[in-house]
Write a structure and sequence with these properties.
The protein has about 450 residues and is of the alpha+beta class. It folds into two domains: about 5-115, Roll (Ubiquitin-like (UB roll)); about 125-445, 2-Layer Sandwich (Creatine Kinase, Chain A, domain 2). Helix content is about 35%, strand content about 20%. The strands form two sheets. Strands 7, 8, 9, 10, 11, 12, 13 and 14 form an eight-stranded mixed β-sheet that branches. β8 (about 200-205) and β9 (about 210-215) form a beta hairpin. α4 runs parallel beside α9, α9 (about 360-375) crosses α11 (about 410-415) and α10 runs antiparallel to α12 (about 420-435). The longest helix has 21 residues, at about 285-305. The protein is globular, with a radius of gyration of 22 Å.
Length: about 450
């Protein structure tokens, strides 16, 4: 077993130095981004090359029901083979014993990647870029709320109680005093991230009451998606230590901003290492404009993946720090597509559409897929937007059903993401949406019961 431990990433080895490893959590992301898998004794993990789980974990809705997503052979809950990616081995520092987490990849009985496993979907998209001689680079930003414990779905979600004994305040973006209110939780987030070997580029207070943002350094899309997947869990665990909840809902509190997962993209030429968005003299290239056009033209169809729940669409409202359309502009946060200030080497395009409630593998995959279509089809965007984009018209779906309609018609996007993934995803989301439509809301009872 000691020889196996010597192959672990440096952070995992440092975490275990002088200690005995007790357990390994073998995990994989399902469609919502929940960690599924098995916990096994370290001695058993050292002897196993793989384990099995049924592929039905990808047919399960967020409520725990099952979508009818039978394939051409009929749905028989076939076993998948899950193989560890040891480069992802990292600590689980909130556990009572010495535990590691390892992300696994899913394969079918013929050793082919399972096409609707989210990590495999992202790997597929990255592979298409690499086949063209390009290396995509992303940097995600994670927004989330720290809220008071709430175990009653009928109660409104409220901000957590701060260190001062007062509820977290809204409208305090970038306030260091506001950040200090969450000091103990943030300290644990930093400690957990350090134990796991993750580098945080910064933590800031956002505009909502109890809303924070964590920025990650740019890098390989699969590696960054792994980190977001891990971060969601470690942030929740840090919050629980301090009697509050961390939520990644897109819109947890009415009249407050929602939570996004902004994604910054740049593309490198594999051979030269140069950013293809910048020319030899530092100017913007055709590829830069093609990528922007791809986002504009294909993100409406991809929105069902980047805004995966009915709650997601409550975020896209005017003047609440979320876009309502896909205009693009330089250094303009009112647009859905923003080009941040940077030098030629760091020129990048920011997608401000994706919600923090999306699966990070799938959100990044769809964003890259839309840009890829723009690149290979050499699409051209309109002129950049000038002014306040909230004064313009909305051009993205406003409800889940409409977004699913567009996604199901988007055959070009399906070819990039994988047709079988598109089929299964649509089945699961239709099942969720139909279940939601069976629920009568308090608003309906209040205003329709005696008035219509």
């Amino acid at each position: 077993m000691s020889a196996w431990l010597d192959t672990l990433p440096e952070a995992a080895q440092s975490y275990l130095e002088g200690r005995r490893l007790d357990e390994v959590e073998c995990v994989i992301s399902d469609l919502p981004g929940i960690a599924r898998g098995k916990a096994v004794p370290a001695s058993k993990f050292a002897k196993q090359d793989y384990f099995h789980l049924p592929d039905s974990i990808f047919y399960q809705t967020i409520t725990g029901d099952w979508a009818d997503a039978a394939d051409e052979d009929g749905w028989i809950e076939k076993d998948m083979t899950l193989k560890p990616d040891m480069s992802t081995a990292t600590a689980a520092p909130w556990t009572g014993d010495w535990t590691l987490q390892v992300i696994h990849d899913a394969y079918d009985r013929d050793d082919n990647p399972v096409p609707f496993s989210p990590r495999n979907v992202l790997k597929r998209v990255v592979g298409l870029y690499e086949a063209k001689g390009w290396r995509p680079v992303v940097a995600p930003e994670m927004e989330f709320f720290l809220v008071a414990r709430n175990i009653d779905p009928a109660r409104d979600i409220e901000p957590m109680m701060g260190r001062s004994g007062r509820p977290a305040a809204a409208r305090q973006a970038y306030s260091m005093t506001a950040v200090d209110e969450f000091g103990p939780v943030i300290d644990d987030i930093y400690d957990f991230a350090e134990a796991q070997g993750f580098e945080i580029d910064g933590i800031t207070q956002e505009g909502g009451a109890g809303q924070l943002e964590i920025n990650l350094r740019h890098g390989n899309p699969v590696k960054l998606a792994d980190e977001v997947f891990y971060f969601k869990r470690l942030i929740r665990e840090a919050a629980l230590r301090h009697d509050c909840f961390a939520t990644f809902m897109a819109k947890p509190i009415a009249d407050e901003p929602g939570s996004a997962m902004h994604i910054h993209h740049s593309i490198l030429d594999i051979e030269s290492g140069e950013n293809i968005f910048s020319g030899p003299q530092g100017g913007e290239t055709d590829a830069f404009y093609h990528f922007i056009a791809g986002l504009q033209n294909h993100l409406p169809a991809g929105l069902a993946v980047m805004a995966p729940y009915v709650n997601s669409y409550r975020r896209y409202v005017k003047d609440h720090a979320a876009p309502i359309n896909l205009e693009w502009a330089r250094d303009n946060r009112t647009t859905g597509i923003r080009v941040p200030l940077s030098g030629p080497e760091a020129r990048r395009v920011e997608n401000r559409i994706a919600g923090m409630d999306c699966n990070p593998y799938l959100g990044i995959a769809v964003s890259l897929a839309c840009g890829y279509l723009g690149l290979i089809q050499e699409e051209r965007p309109p002129r950049q937007f000038k002014g306040d984009a909230y004064e313009g018209e909305g051009d993205i779906p406003q409800v889940m059903g409409q977004a699913l309609d567009l996604f199901e018609e988007a055959t070009a996007l399906h070819e990039v993401l994988g047709p079988e993934f598109a089929r299964v995803y649509s089945c699961v989301k239709r099942a969720e949406y139909e279940e939601f439509l069976q629920v009568i809301s308090p608003w309906e009872r209040e205003h329709l019961l005696l008035n219509v």
